[in-house]
Amino acid sequence: MAAFGDPLLLLLISFLVFLVSFTFANVGLGGGTLYVPILLLLFLDEDDIVVPISLMLAVATAISSTWNHWKKGFVHLPIGRSLFGGALVGAILGTTFTLNVLTRFTFKVFFSALLFFLACVMLYDWYRARRVDQDDDTKLTRSRLAVASVATAASGFVSGSAGIGGGVLNVPIITRGLGRRTRTAIGTSSLLIVPTAMFGFLIYLVRHAYGGRGVPAEFSIIPVLFPLALVGAFVGSRWGLNALRTRSVALLFIGVVFLADALVVLDVLVIF
Fold it and tell me: How many CB atoms lie within 10 A of CB 10?
């Protein structure tokens, strides 16, 4: 609750949330890879509170990103419908894993390992990106859609367990597995993040309510940060669609994710 008692700290968190949403909306990610470290280090050291807050910020980021990509024709609704079920199943498993299996310390160990893995996935995907960024309709088959739907359960799992939108897995699945251009993958990934992250948040909310804790008082920070993430993602994705190359933005934030991981690892070492 430190942020509520320290206006400067709350201002810092608000600025960082705006900055993360501004940039992550351009690469199809919800922003949780940085929202969670920000909240853990500056706000509250409880994973079952931080994760659902991060999920709501990912929802805000994804809503604005989806809207702007939709207006440019970069959201593929049939793919979104096909992958939706797998993502929700993964979200249920992920939230259960965090609430029933992980402790405060093991969550940080799990999250730091996951963050490092996802950063490596993003770096590999950036390195292997196609020189010609265009749709390949030969890959958009029923069998590939079925496999992609199962694979998307992994993105739902990391979303529910770690407060990450899941776009770091959605985008490669849609580009490589289903042959969509990068911008379409980003827009469709953002579309998937909205219901997946919202569903994960609701699971946490219900579990808190039935666990006798009611609605955590710390959730009152959501109305403060949600609009900032919404506006930041709207302005950022709108600007990025007109001015930025996705490849350059992705490389920049791969570095930021590695930095965030280093901070979480340092925090784990201090606790240990």
Answer: 18
- Tokens representing residue 155 in the block: 């993105």
What pLDDT is stored for residue 231 in this prediction? Answer: 95
- Taking the chain, what is the end-to-end CA distance rounded to the nearest angstrom? 23
More confident residue, 266 or 89: 89
Give the per-residue SS3 of the chain: CHHHHCHHHHHHHHHHHHHHHHHHCCCCCCCHHHHHHHHHHHCCCCHHHHHHHHHHHHHHHHHHHHHHHHHCCCCCHHHHHHHHHHHHHHHHHHHHHHHHCCCHHHHHHHHHHHHHHHHHHHHHHHHCCCCCCCCCHHHCCHHHHHHHHHHHHHHHHHHHHHCCCCHHHHHHHHHHHCCCCHHHHHHHHHHHHHHHHHHHHHHHHHHHHHCCCCCCHHHHHHHHHHHHHHHHHHHHHHHHHHHCCHHHHHHHHHHHHHHHHHHHHHHHHHHC
Looking at the chain, the whole-number percentage of residues with pLDDT higher than 90 is 20
**Which of 72-81, 174-183, 194-203, 208-217 has the least mean pLDDT?**
208-217
Q: Read off the amino acid at residue 139.
A: K
Query: Residue 6 — left, alpha, or beta (φ > 0 → left; ψ -120 to 50 → alpha)?
Result: beta
Q: Across the chain, which distance is largest between two alpha carbons, in Å?
A: 57
Cβ 108 vs Cβ 271: under 8 Å: yes
State the Cα–Cα distance between residues 165 and 173, nearest whole angstrom. Answer: 14
pTM of the model: 0.85
